[in-house]
Fold this sequence. Notes:
The protein is about 30% helix and about 25% strand. By secondary structure, it is of the alpha/beta class. The strands form two sheets. Strands 5-4-3-6-7-8-9 form a seven-stranded mixed beta sheet. A two-stranded antiparallel ribbon has the order 1-2. A hairpin with a 5-residue loop joins strand 1 and strand 2.
Amino acid sequence: MRDTTKHQGLRNQLANVLSGKGITDEKVLNAVRKIPRHLFIDSSFEDHAYQDKAFPIAADQTISHPYTVAFQSQVLEVKEGDKVLEIGTGSGYQTAVLLELRAEVYTIERQHELFKRTSLFLPKIGYRPKKFIFGDGYKGLPEQAPFDKIIVTAGAPYIPNPLLSQLKIGGKLLIPVGDKTQIMTLLIRNSAKEFEKHELGDFKFVPMLKKRN
Ligand code: SAH
């Protein structure tokens, strides 16, 4: 697992590309400059790591576009110490960004192969979420609720109620909703019963997998 000055240069370029596309949060850009994204994908595809592309990982899943990760991270306005629930650990790249933003991260993955792989890999490169959970994101994580922020990184057919109910007052849920393409949807919990909804444009994610009984 090598990280070189060449990789660092490519990361700086990627951060410039993202900033050109409208990412203005310096903390997010610094995370992109720092995290060795090439280590999150198969080494034979290393050349692709610092282009703004999604890429296949194990179990028919993808590592999201760097722009998408940066956009979601920016919208969430993660603050130091925020308790954040992530649905869809995947490669762990978004998890690493949240950790660079100094969140306390709980991350759920539904596919065992990815769960195993990423829960071994991330600590090896120094990223330690509070908890890796092998489970069903539709249920959230009631035993650790409430959360300041909840981020979903797979395309959801609808907004799962348990996720709304596990938000703190003032908390934010960011979730791509839709079938073939998704609308990035931000829900802010204004009170116990009131949620403010913002639609933030079209994105394309792999589908959030159905519940396993
Ligand atoms: N943040 C990841 C995105 C991976 S793609 C990255 O940048 O690498 C979405 C991930 O969500 C996949 O790993 C998929 O297995 C997982 N996923 C799909 N449905 C899920 C569910 N119901 N609960 C938890 N994880 C789920």
